[in-house]
Specification:
By secondary structure, the chain is α/β, with parallel strands linked by helices. The protein is built from five helices and seven strands. The protein is elongated and about 60 Å long. It starts with a helix and ends in an 18-residue tail after the last helix.
Length: 192
Amino acid sequence: MTAREVVAAIGDVVDPLAVEESFGVLTVDVSAASWRTAATGLRDDPRTAARFFDWLSAYDDRDAGLAVVVRAWSVERGGGAILRCHVPRDEPRVDSLTPVWAGAGWHERETFEMFGIYFEGHPHLVPLLLPDSFEGHPLRKEFVLATRVAKDWPGQKQPGESDRDVAGEDVGRRRRRIRPPGVPAPDSWGPA
């Protein structure tokens, strides 16, 4: 399967927003509204025949919103492609791909739980990994990881430095404490 065939197959059903190839992997960006249609075209078009569902996940793309990503593969054609769409942070919704690939069900449940992206039409969109009492979506950038505040962060030491320097003096007393990335000041969040 060539990049031209993938773009033609998806372009027959929707207008791709962007196409990029990096490290031999083709990524096609589509709108959230055409997400399921593009995936169906990738699966059903004989030029691509991407009938094998590999994985689905998301990542926090900061100002661009949340990016939902699926990788499909064609055993017959010997190639694959990545399909990606962006959803807004405040209302993250996109169509479920379970009607296209049944294997997407578990991946969408995990993505729903970790990022808060709602997959319209999913047959059983319930939490999968976290306890029932858990609040928030831990893979979003704004989620504060309390364990980074509660225990020492490995990044507070310089490379090659240990808890004690050569003279046996405690290094922690000489250096200012570095707050881990993404952790706000202690007085700005959490219990007082």
